[in-house]
Amino acid sequence: MVEIAQDFTKGKTPATLYEQCLGCYVAKLNYNVQTLDSVQQLRYLPPGVLSDVYVMMSKHDELKDMLLEQLIDLSTFERLLRFDPVRLKLFRCLTALMSSGKLLSTQLQQNFTMRYRQKQDSTKFNKTATTEPSSSSSSNPLKKSPNIPTTPTMVDLFANASISTTVKDNDVYENSSVKTESPVVNDIDPDVIFEELPLDDFHFGLEVIDFGLRLGSFLSEAGWLADSVEILQCVASKLRNMPADKQHMLVRLDCLQRLLHSQSTLYSFKSAERTFDETVALLKELSQDNVPRALLAKIYTQFSAMYFARSEYDNSHMWSSIAMRHLEESTPERIAVDVLRQAAKACVVKRDFQRANLLISQATYRARKTFGAQHQKYADSLLDYGFFLLNVDSVYQSVIVYKDALEIRRNIFGNRNFHVAIAHEDLSYAYYVHEYSTGNFSCARKHVEKAIEIMEYLVPRNHLVLASAKRVKALLLEEIALDKLTDGGADEDGLLRQSEELHNFALKLSLEMFGEVNVQTAKHYGNLGRLYQTMNRFEEAERMHLKAIQIKTDLLGAYDYEVGLSIGHLASLYNYHMGKYREAESLYMRSIEISLRLFGKSYSGLEYDYLGLCHVYETRREFEKYLKYAIILENWQMLRGQNIAMNKTYAEASDDYSLEEVKYQFFNMCTQNSTTTATTDTGTIVHN
């Protein structure tokens, strides 16, 4: 009672009786003889209560070893995983343990694969030694506890399956995989083909598949992607030799789309391509009419995400549009949000901003309404919303959105997590764009260095996701060095040399992963072109810019934003450093035309083109043309000031459209890229 009174005095909400009881119990936990039996009995508590105990334990360093011992027990973890309301609490427990070096994710993966093999080996032994069936599945430690509410997977729909397995080689630990801190169980003999389980092991096989799908997806959501891939590949190998009937094939499709998601997010493209090919072949064999529309929407969204990660934007856009066609009112909200998010990103890179605005606004609205403002699904939607805002030149808004997304992810996953690192990088780049004109890159540098620090802990040093973060850092170092040189100083810290090393590192990986003809590779050429211009290596700069323009034009067309960006950079090189004024004039005109088509008259990038033209005409003493563009620049400054004033805050969509209404608008909307300007304070696109 005294503590409750103190809480009231301090303005805190007093703990409930339930919370006080849990607190007292956890405070007395230790490994002495008196409490050992009590600790062992914990796992029999209802999952809601048990998860609360575990969350409290995760806050005490001296209890983390005990908590780890509890959670690496697969039967305990499965009970909790099947009870969806405690999912966020499981994330927090996982975060607390992983942050303390207690490798729960890796140990769960190892225990799952080892348990899977042990059961198979035991089955083979029993079939060889006796004609009697092996021990009853009632003793199976993975067996579901009765009366536990569950979140259904595809497996729940098909109770009449028989199980046989093939274990094949596992390639997740190629260059593009997340490293673990302890030895990986990766020694399964690829040539062993396990025989079909006897009938009394039927339920065990189903439970392994079901739990594996849940566990693999959970670890993927939590950011431990390599362990997720290990588990899902294990399940996929088990499903591969099942009878080729409709039920088994649907379960296999569900597994493959989950696996493809983890592989693509991890940039494990060789593995992802094999999974993609297997999924396409299975779809052809099964025919779409036999696949639930919600599952098809998930599959095609993963296809789109894979191509998006590979910067193959035409294919990404095509598959996301196909996924949109399979949405219906009965589609689970979690799937609908993911489909809308991915389709929005695909529209952004195709500069179809009107459709992108519709989709991402609905995705963020639905995610917040359904899952709440502190859910990872809402944070995912915010990151994609920030990507949209940045690309439609609402840079200030994008910074705000990215900050919100980062904060939510940190609250859920902690500080040392793959998803958190990505959010740091995204925010850093938004700060870089926002502060480009001021030269104050302190916030951008802080966040990108944090992203690199996390990634270097989690992934190999030649991983593509690390190269992406280093590219952003290289851009920042170049601008910081350039500001020093402009102010009459010197690059004492060798920032330009560091920037060149980082850019070449990123280019090398991009060439190895994607080849020469790829948007990412072209971007790296363009970045090197700008850097060489700063370093007074003008011929090299010209060669890099010309490469970037050629690749981007071939892939994206003559009027894409990326093409305009590279054209503007080459124009600047010709204008300010190489004295090719007529070539510069022509390039500036092309860049302006692209910007006006895509963003309208208040687009921020137009400033550099107008200033460049003024410099060209002043140098050539063409004063009439100089005056014309000086007036245009002045008008731009007025429009830009009005636009910035409108965009100091952001608001999400509040229109509660049905999915059918969203689909109708999406497929009947006329593309108006050429007249799109920027977002207003309501977050909607303004068209002239």
Which labels suit this protein?
mainly alpha, disordered C terminus, Serine Threonine Protein Phosphatase 5, Tetratricopeptide repeat, two-stranded antiparallel sheet
Task: Offer a concise description of the structure.
The chain is mainly α and 688 residues long.
Describe the structure.
The radius of gyration is 28 Å and the shape is globular. 68% of the residues lie in helices and 1% in strands. A two-stranded antiparallel sheet has the order 1-2. It is mainly alpha-helical and 688 residues long. Among the domains are: 2-99, no CATH class; 474-687, Serine Threonine Protein Phosphatase 5, Tetratricopeptide repeat. The termini are far apart.
CATH superfamily of the domain at 474-687: Tetratricopeptide repeat domain
CATH level-3 fold name of the domain at 474-687: Serine Threonine Protein Phosphatase 5, Tetratricopeptide repeat
CATH class category of the domain at 474-687: Mainly Alpha
- How large is the count of helical segments? 29
What's the alpha carbon Rg, rounded to whole Å? 28 Å
Strand order of the largest sheet: 1-2
For the record, give the distance between the C-alpha atoms at the N and C termini, rounded to a whole number. 65 Å
Shape field? globular
Q: Per DSSP, what share of the residues sits in E-state strands of 2 or more residues?
A: under 5%
> Helix content range of the residues, please?
55-70%
Assign the CATH architecture of the domain at 474-687: Alpha Horseshoe
- Count of strand segments: 2
Write down the overall mean pLDDT. Answer: 81
Helices and strands: which structural class?
Answer: mainly alpha
Q: Which stretches are low in confidence, meaning pLDDT under 50 for 5 or more residues running? A: 1-6, 121-204, 672-688
Report on the biggest sheet: 2 strands, antiparallel
